[in-house]
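hi! just following up on the protien thing from before. the input was this:
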Amino acid sequence: MTGPQPETGPGPGPGPGPEEAPAEAGARAAGEAPAGEKRGGHPRHDLAPLLNAPVRLSVVAALMPLDKAEFGFVRDLVEVSDSVLSKQVAALEEAGWVAVRKGRVGRRPRTWLSLTAEGRAVYQRHLTALRAIALG
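and the predicted 3d structure came back as:
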């Protein structure tokens, strides 16, 4: 495959947004019950509704084994347009699951994507729930 390649090394850390901390937004997006409320025992309660969209799930899955990756690499891997990927990454970033870092390589602008620690945890929980549902 030609084009931008994934990069290794420490990715950018998550930062709280102006309105709320990413952990709070991520907890809501993950479908977690509010503090003090008990959830049912069925594994579907551990599914992250935000990851029900195939493109978002594909983006998180693509980023999971990497420290960070260029936007173009993820776009090509997931086989979507720039605008589709940008919209889906914005939703994941708002939840606090993906960090976006912009910079330059020479004169060319670049955007790097990486999963946050919370994004990794949510993805693992989502996969565990899917496996539990599928295997009964």
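The chain has five helices and four strands.
Helices lie at 22-29, 54-63, 71-78, 82-94, 117-135.
cheers
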